[in-house]
From TrEMBL:
Residues 1-20 form the signal peptide. InterPro entries: Poly_export (IPR049712), Poly_export_N (IPR003715), SLBB_dom (IPR054765), Soluble_ligand-bd (IPR019554). It comes from Hephaestia caeni. Keywords: Cell outer membrane, Ion transport, Lipoprotein, Membrane, Palmitate, Polysaccharide transport, Porin, Signal, Sugar transport, Transmembrane, Transmembrane beta strand, Transport. This is Polysaccharide export outer membrane protein. Residues 79-170 form the Polysaccharide export protein N-terminal domain. It is found in: Cell outer membrane. Residues 261-349 form the SLBB domain. It is a multi-pass membrane protein. One of its GO terms (molecular function) is porin activity. PROSITE patterns: PROKAR_LIPOPROTEIN.
Length: 379
């Protein structure tokens, strides 16, 4: 061995302990599975749950976070009551002595009775709920149905007309309406009918959604109460498909759901759900799976808060939980198909412990390669 090569060899031997001692400081994509378990044991700041058949069955049995959220607003109510702002069409039909447009009563009892009809100009219900009509004066209309108001007016006109009959119709409905706004194609005010429109009916009448259903939320304000739920969880006619009441306000919001892939995953990224449900197996597959040159298949984790809000943010009393799955176990591939992802979940693939010594050897190879190259050139 030449003096130059001998010096390089001795230098490398001297540097080897320092390089190995500094392995912990070598760049990695995150902690190893052993380090995560140790952190949970020593610090106790999060729960660590091994993903097995019992855990997956318990998660599947838990009620869906989206269903039943709107049903808390369910209550009976009418949609045909007259209210302030409504425009009424009132028609009066008379037989015999007439107040409106007729020839009046005849003195000959053998003569046939005469009849007449009169349609009054449109009448607007005042802010106090009352209307003013000729021969009647001011009368309360709000709170009555058109038929009920017609019967009341018939009784009032009977004092001055021989046989009056009054028909009332709501010409322009203002009180019995709901407002649909947000991410729909035709937002606006929707009049309610006796067909009893529901949440999904209102959205369809408003032209449908402007964005995918899977990532749309509906918020319903009813009086001083409100509730919000995912539109994808509402089935036609279900308890969440509420029958709408006057003055309800529906707001549709597009809120894309995502989860994050980190660590030794094939492609660390923030990934949109795109579908209504995404399993852990699908989540890993979208990231091209664990990196075979870097990942520890026994250290696949899902980090989340439980319980969580619809958007994945921590709910009141939430605790951080880490689910660990061993992908070396063939059964894990079935379990990950049943494990459902939540918004804001973090899927972390741990680094293999052997990666750090391997990186140290790579650094040593880089260190010695110039000497080997020089030796080849000089020979």
């Amino acid at each position: 061995m030449s003096p130059r090569n001998s010096f390089a060899f001795r230098t490398g031997i001297c540097l080897l302990p320092a390089l190995l001692a500094g392995c912990a400081s070598l760049p990695t994509s995150g902690p190893t599975g052993v380090e995560i378990v140790r952190a949970q044991r020593d610090l106790g700041k999060f729960e660590l749950v091994e993903l097995d058949e019992a855990v997956v069955a318990e998660l599947e049995a838990a009620p869906s976070s989206g269903r039943g959220r709107l049903s808390v607003l369910a209550q009976p109510g009418d949609v045909d009551r007259i209210g302030p702002g409504d425009i009424l069409q009132i028609s009066i039909f008379e037989v015999g002595a007439a107040l409106f447009g007729g020839r009046g009563a005849t003195l000959d009892p053998a003569a046939p009775a005469t009849g007449s009809g009169e349609t009054l100009p449109p009448v607007v219900v005042g802010r106090d709920g009352s209307i003013t009509l000729p021969w009647v004066g001011r009368i309360q209309a709000a709170g009555s149905t058109p038929d009920e108001l017609g019967m009341t007016l018939t009784g009032r006109y009977r004092a001055n007309s021989e046989n009056p009959q009054v028909m009332v119709a709501i010409r322009e409905n203002v009180n019995n309406t709901v407002v649909v706004q947000g991410d729909v194609k035709k937002p606006g005010r929707l009049p309610l009918t006796l067909a009893r429109e529901r949440v999904l009916d209102a959205i369809a009448i408003a032209g449908g959604l402007a964005n995918p259903t899977a990532d749309s939320l509906v918020n319903i304000s009813r009086g001083d109460r409100s509730a919000e739920g995912p539109l994808s969880a509402i089935e036609p006619g279900s308890i969440d498909d509420l029958q709408l009441l006057p003055q309800d306000r529906l707001s549709i919001t597009f809120r894309p759901r995502t989860y994050t892939l980190l660590g030794a995953a094939g492609k660390p990224a923030e990934v949109p759900f795109q579908n209504m449900r995404v399993s852990l197996a699908e989540a890993l597959g979208r990231g091209a799976g664990p990196n075979e040159n870097q990942a520890d298949p026994r250290a696949v984790f899902v980090f989340r808060y439980e319980p969580a809000n619809l958007d994945g943010s921590p709910a009141e009393g939430a605790v951080p939980v880490a689910y660990r799955v061993n992908m070396r176990d063939p059964m894990a591939y079935f379990l990950t198909q049943r494990f459902e992802m939540h918004p804001r979940d973090v899927v972390y693939v741990g680094n293999a412990g052997a990666n750090i010594p391997t990186k140290a050897m790579q650094i040593l190879n880089l260190f010695f390669s110039p000497f080997y190259t020089a030796k080849v050139v000089t020979q």
